[in-house]
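Honest question from a wet-lab person: if I give you the sequences of every part of a complex, can you actually get the arrangement of the whole thing, not just the pieces? Trying it with mine:
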Amino acid sequence: MKLPAVLRRSVRAKITALVLTTTLAALALTALALIYYTMRDYRQTHLADVRTQAEILGRASAAALAFNDRKEALQNLGVLRARADIEQAALYDAEGGLFAAYGRNASPQVPATALTPQYRIDGDRLKLSHRVQEGGQVLGTVYVESIHRLPERLAAYVLILAGVMAMALAAALVLSVWLQRAVTEPIVSVSQAAHAVIERQDFSVRAGKTSEDEIGALTTAFNRMLEEIERRTKALVESEQRFRTIADSAPVLMWLNDETGAAFVNRAYLDFIGATTQADLRGYDWAKYVHPDDRAGYLDAWRRCAQEGALFDQEFRFRRHDGTYRWMRSVAVPRVADEGRALGYTGCTFDVHDARMLTDALHEADQRKDEFLATLAHELRNPLAPIRNAVHLMALDDDAQRRPALLEMLERQVNHMVRLVDDLMDVSRVSRGTIELQRERLDLGALLRTAVETSKPLLERARHRLDLSLPAQPLFVEGDAVRLAQVFANLLNNAAKYTEDGGHIQISARREGVEAVVSVRDNGIGFAPDQMPRLFEMFSQIERGTARAKDGLGIGLALAKRLVLMHAGTVGAESEGPGRGSCFTVRLPLAAQAAGDAEAPARADAPQDLAQQRLLVVDDNRDAADSLALVLETLGAQVEVAYDGAAALDAFDRFGPRAVLLDLGMPGMNGLEVARRLRERANGHAAMIVALTGWGQDEDRARTRAAGFDHHFVKPVDVTSLQALLGLG
Amino acid sequence: MAVFRLLLLCALFLAGPGAVGQILEPQVKAAFLFRFLSFVEWPPHSLGAPGTPLVIAVLGAEDLRAELEKIVAGRLVNERPVVVERVAEGERPGRAHVLFVGRRANAQLRAMARTPALLLVGESEGALDQGALINFVVRDERVRFEVAPDEAERRGLRIGARVLAVALQVKPGTARP
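Yes, you can. This is the full assembly:
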């Protein structure tokens, strides 16, 4: 049954309705019972009363009836005047005929004949007939008609009861309103608190406790519940904040998805895709942001993992808000509900772009290094075969006529090897940034002429035609003569190498603004535009087009470029395509014009004719020591040899050399120790001590300087340089 | 038949006093005689055991006796049957409770007077003085009666006050004869 709206909303109304309804029902029942009983009682009393009256009348009138005394009968009836309720009455004789009649107010309207003895209620009249008997003989009938005041009385009763009921209801209403406060107030208090909690989400609200009954207990329980909720909510909010802070401060993309898509992503994720809030994710489809090349594979892996509920780990390119693709790695674990149902994944996606690039670069570099090593082995081996053959021939054959040709060949091959190794040393130094430039004012023209001279053998062998065009005025630059010569030699070698025999190579130098520009042009194999970026990379070589291209380690251009960069210049290359030649251009800043007087500064220690100089060579490698000694003697010096530190000290004391060429790595007393001891001697200061070592690093040089060395030569020693230093020949 | 007669009687009553005349007088008196049985108390010894009939003796009124016979037939008064006896002149009624002495035998009244427990009823002027306890008289063409309750009491009978109320005349306590 549906209650009225008011009752459904308010406990107070319900209680009032309850009280009023029950009160009304009780009152109504009571009233009905009362009315019924009273009316019945009244009727019975009235009936009995009338019957008694009829009996008395009958008895009194028996004789009148028996002896036909109408007058007496009328007198008897007249007695009824004392009874206000009896309206009319009559006596009938034994045969039922009307004998005498009485009417209170008017002429009697009684039945013409006697009625059977009984009573009848007819409207407000009680009509009673009573048999008159005497000695068992029926003498007649008495008829009495009394006003039955039942309806009147009933109406009065109902009126009174209605009044009483109204008062009772009013009293009940007042009482219930007064009493129900004890019940409803605590409930209303709890209800208001509950509303406040729901509407304001304010769990600090408490319901006031006003009673000690069940509702009081309920209030207490409600308050405790609120406390608990408040505590838990606070803990939850704190925890949520804590985890959100962690998630948002993490530099990786964190996400959590369900079957509908992304359910949560962290700040880094939002930043990555250029969104501001989680709400921006509506309709976001991450798959669209995966690089088209990676998408199919990535989605495939994703589907497979989702099917198996497996750990997901994939690298892919992901588009950032600025439109660039970054290499990312996604690691995700499945989220599983308690009952084992898959809920989705939660994962991290982090930027591995730099690492990936680095790895790729390293991988490529490694590959190039492998190729380089193979090339290096090959290149180092190449001269060894003719050298070995020459040595064999010289050992077997005394023919002095062939010797000069053999020696020339030997020298050429050795020089080639030395150049290779020098290149390697340079590459190593350049890579580590340990080259120090000996800057001086240089004329590029002179430098180019030297470079051409150096490369001449190679050019001539290939029968290349070389044109050198230089400006009339010298082009001065600040630079290291040796290194710049090396740059141009490398460019020339490169041109010679990648041009078919009989090619044409042009070198030109000119002034362009504040720069000196040198270009080396050939009509060789050229290169494709896409090869351009790698031309100057270490260990890279153009696909070998010619047999000679195999010569070299693929480091010449890289070295040239770095050296030019060290001189604050640039180097560029251009080609009209494969087979159409190429042009390499070096641009160097011109030196200030101010100091344009002298051409080249005089050498500090100019070569002196110091033949017959006394020199001491110390090396535990006897071959190395003897061969060097031989070379120096050939150049005209007096040379003494020692194979260890102690012997070196003895020889120094005995021989008194002008210079000592000292190997560093010796067993027992090493070169540094020997140098220190030599400097402790009385005549040790005058001698020049030169280090001969495989180590050419700055710290190595510093160490030798500290030990008292004057010069530091890296093996294998360039005899020309040594000769220049010592002033031999 | 009885019903028919009663209805007839009723009709006659209604016809008015004039119609009573001689024709109905014995009938009314017979009815009254019968009814006196209900209003008069006899001493218990005169009534005999329950169920013993009440006896109404009639002297010198054959038409009345005949009417009375019709009335009492099959009727009970105080659960006793009623018997009508004819008493010849000069005869004394045996065990009668009521003796009606007709106008023609009026001389017999004195002889019957003083009989205890006998309701002596006459129908002539001054019958009460002659010893009757109840005497029928006709007034205004209606049958009425006079009563001598004191005398009746002396003979052991009690005539109810209600009878006295309808009696035409009640003879006050008379001197002893």
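Two things worth pointing out. Chain B is about 35% helix and 25% strand. The longest helix of chain B spans residues 21-39.
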